[in-house]
Amino acid sequence: MALMITDECINCDVCEPACPNTAIYQGEEIYEINPDLCTECVGHYDKPQCQQVCPIDCIPRDPDKVESKEQLMEKYHKITASN
């Protein structure tokens, strides 16, 4: 399941550099997450780094982007193979 950033985001800039897949970017009003690049840090860390550093806890799982740990690991391998 990819993560998402809710409109409670205060644009504090700490989540973007914490993402190992560069899935987080500045949107028109708040930071956003590209679900094609979000692996919830599977393959990199035990926990999603953006959630760990977010001071207001506005990065939940996206219920519209449900993926298993296996699917997230497969995505991780595809992303890192192109690097």
Structure description:
The chain is of the alpha+beta class. The protein has a single domain (15-81), classed as Alpha-Beta Plaits. 27% of the residues lie in helices and 7% in strands. It has 3 helices and 2 strands, in the order αββαα. It has helices at residues 15-18, 49-53, 69-81; strands at residues 24-26, 31-33. It has a two-stranded antiparallel ribbon. It is globular. The model has no long low-confidence stretch (mean pLDDT 95). InterPro entries: 4Fe4S_Fe-S-bd, 4Fe4S_Fe_S_CS, PSI_iron-sulfur_center, YfhL-like. It holds the Pfam family Fer4_7.
Features:
83 residues, alpha+beta, Alpha-Beta Plaits, two-stranded antiparallel sheet, 3 helices, 27% helix, 4Fe-4S, 4Fe4S_Fe_S_CS, iron, transport
Question: What's the structural blueprint in terms of helices and strands?
Answer:
Layout: H1 15-18, E1 24-26, E2 31-33, H2 49-53, H3 69-81
Antiparallel strand pairs: 1-2
Task: Briefly say what this structure is.
GO terms for molecular function: 4 iron, 4 sulfur cluster binding; metal ion binding. Pfam families: Fer4_7. Helix content is 27%, strand content 7%.
**What fraction of residues sit in β-strands?**
5-15%
Helix content: 25-40%
The domain tally reads: 1
- Output the structural class: alpha+beta
Give the ordered list of helices and strands.
HEEHH
What order do the strands of the largest sheet run in, or round the barrel if closed?
Answer: 1-2
Bulk shape: globular
Query: What is the mean pLDDT?
Result: 95
- Biggest β-sheet strands, sense, barrel: 2 strands, antiparallel
Could you give the distance between the termini?
22 Å
Tally of individual helices:
3
CATH domain topology: Alpha-Beta Plaits
Gyration radius, to the nearest Å? 12 Å
CATH architecture: 2-Layer Sandwich
* Top CATH class: Alpha Beta
User: How many strands?
Assistant: 2
Flag low-confidence runs. none
Pfam families: Fer4_7
GO molecular function, one term: metal ion binding
Protein name: 4Fe-4S ferredoxin iron-sulfur binding domain protein
InterPro entries: 4Fe4S_Fe-S-bd (IPR017896), 4Fe4S_Fe_S_CS (IPR017900), PSI_iron-sulfur_center (IPR050157), YfhL-like (IPR047927)
